[in-house]
Amino acid sequence: MTNAPRLFNEVLLEAKNISLFFGGVKALSGVTFDIRKGEIRAIIGPNGAGKTSMLNVINGFYHPQEGTIRYKGEMRRAMRPHRAARQGIARTFQNVALFKGMSTLDNIMTGRLIRMRSNLLFQALYWGPNQREEIKHREFCEQIIDFLEIQAIRKTPVGRLPYGLQKRVELARALAMEPDLLLLDEPMAGMNVEEKEDMCRFVLDVNEQLGTTIALIEHDMGVVMDISDRVVVLDYGRKLADGTPDEVRSDQRVIDAYLGVSH
Amino acid sequence: MTGQAGSGQPAADTFPKLLLHHAEVRPGRPAMREKSYGIWQTWTWKQVADEIHLLACGLAAKGFRRGDRIAIIGDNRPRLYWTMCAAQALGGVPVPLYQDSVAKEMAFVVDHAEVRFAMVEDQEQVDKLIEIRDGCPKLAHVFYDDPRGLRSYTQDFLSDYDSLIAAGRAFDRANPDYLVGEIGRGTGSDTAIICYTSGTTGNPKGVVLTHDNVLITARNAAEMERLTDREAFLAYLPMAWVGDNIFSYAQGYVCGFCVSCPESGATVMDDLRELGPTYFFAPPRIFENILTSVMIRMEDASALKRRLFRHFMGVARRWGIKILNKESVPPGARLVYALGQLLIYGPLKNTLGLSNIRLAYTAGEAIGPDIFDFYRALGINLKQLYGSTEASVFVAIQPDGEVFADTAGRPAKGVEIRIADNGEVLFRGPGVFKEYYKAPEATAETKTPDGWVLTGDAGLFDERGHLKIIDRAKDVGRLINGTMFAPKYIENKLKFFPDIKEAVTFGHERPSVCAFLNIDITAMGSWAERNNVAYGSYQELAAHSRVHEILKGHVESVNRDLARDPLLAGSQIHRFLVLHKELDPDDGELTRTRKVRRRIIAERYGELIEALYAGKDEVLSLVEVTFEDGRKGRLEGRLKIIDVETCPAAGQEDRARQAAA
Questions:
Q1: Which ipTM did the prediction report?
Q2: Residue B442: what are its φ and ψ, rounded to 5°?
Q3: Which fold has domain A93-178?
Q4: In chain B, fewer beta carbons within 10 Å around the N or the C end?
């Protein structure tokens, strides 16, 4: 979609030599790559390559046994997910993780939680400054609803929505956090062509208009090659290749990993 | 200010003049609403007038001159409606386009109307105009309402709405009297709008309507229906359709009522509920969908609620329509109806957003009598009208108290209707279009020198003086004995039965009328389930003798209906058969929009038609079918032919009864 390759210099997040074991299983071994401010970064690889593990490491859900992560210039090793959220990392999940009984609007409002100041008691009273605060947050949520074109399901319980829309609500909730870095775990899995096109458009719009840096895992190669600025390829927990979509596409090791080689 | 429509507006013969009138007479009343960010935003007549003033000045600053045409493309948005009026203030002509047209279709209209300006809603429409711009060199300026996604666009002919307003502000400061002068120069005979009609064959034609056409027609209808400035209307139908221009724009300006724009196309039903409009238009399809969703949701309700619903709907069907028609109804029935209003009708109308409805119209195609009666029984004043783009909509309207499911009503105020010798409906009146844009030949074919317009529809006046539209004139045929045969009219009557999915009738140059039927597998299947009728396939159910009995009853009831009309009594159905396969677009039997393709069906099933007329009881059919994956197969079936009783025509029946007495 972008004609000339865009240039990004400022490193937002740098993962160095990350290794992660579960007992004897090596999920990631010595993976090094960076995410630069403002770009759309894709992580691809065959099943079990360690893509989701990598996202989990980035947002502090897993703690790697080896390696370091530098985020916004700060070094960290072990971090809890809520700390990551406070520092501006939001994510969506491979299997939708929403509150099924709550409405779309309420689900998105939960994304605002980390930005709310007043305590539970005052929120329950809905009075004075707390009312003003709630109105401010609601306004922000409405902008996201408008942005993702989900006005029609504002009040629908999320559990009643089709899968493609649930994915969109999840993205909305992540956006409500006003993240600096947005991690999307297979945002288009299980969608039909039209839903995929919509989602692509939203991802590009988020990146372009809100300036959010995006790291996404995706299996649809058409999508990846279309929208991402740089692609990192994982296979069996190792980094196989890293570069622009064109470079990655023509990399022999990537072709082998995806198509298989005769041994 | 609760003024009656049309009173006290002697000099306001154009839209911009009406706007100034309302800004003066009812400056604080709401003129327009739109839901954005989840909240209804309101603009008063004064605010709208000020905004349109700046908008018109902005257009003038960009070089918009008297007679220029501006394309308007997008969903119903206040700013797009305001652009219409702003263009008209400068003596220009808005050309609204269907927002879901593909770029190629737009290219034709933009080129044909020699559009120099365009006001579009968003990136989607901008992209289409960029795509066609090479083929439309005259298109010089494109303005957009929603800047989303357009930040990186660098084309110099693009600019956003706000910059247009800013240019208008500067222009207004430099030429403070310019716009008032321009509005004063406009007269009622100026062109107000060009509506392109989606021609089924060939390219679309641009129907040129003047301010007088649109405003007088809108005012006449508003007076007849006693519309006031307190009405609330929801504008959700495509802006390119003449109906939207009349209902959401012209009548709003004539009466001074408030028009609301929905949040998005998908939220219309929710917005309807929140607004509770008093005045509503929808094609039959939408009324049908609403009814279906009500019925499905009632199936899931508790047993008590279901019983209450069924009981009170029975009451409503019996008395509600009479109460609405102001006929005499016994006080007891009124009391029960009032109870139903409290328990069922009120809450139901509230859920549908129809609580405040005073007037609802439907038009465009035939509406099923059951659907029609459902709404009227609830106390919703749903009426049918017959109209066309060439008439600025209103040709015939059903007056209050004379509402029937099967007519289009009486001629609208100021409109004359004539039935030509071949059965075609002709009309003449204040709304008759000026011409087809740049197509004098087409104009001459449709409009006679003395102002009669040929509609291409065949119709008749029934004994109540109501116009009945029966078919497209070119489809109407004659039986051998000369009786008129209107296939679609009969087929529609058959298809109003939920059990019948499709019907094809034959009769042109034949001795009598015969029919093919397709059962509706959902409706008939559910009947079979309830009545322990076992079946393995569509073909098996369609061949079941008890199914044939039911269908025979339906056909006979259609015959009784036809017999009441002296002109159509001769075209009752004598014999029918139930096809062993569903008519399918994949086999070319239907168009993609599910219209019957008579010629192809007649070819494919030639031997069946012959069997119907040869008096056989049974026929063996062998047809080729195309499966969804494109493979072909052959379907064989032995079809029974069923004879149907016909009724004597209405006049003869009376005579027979007299003779018996």
A1: 0.78
A2: -65, -40
A3: Rossmann fold (3.40.50)
A4: C
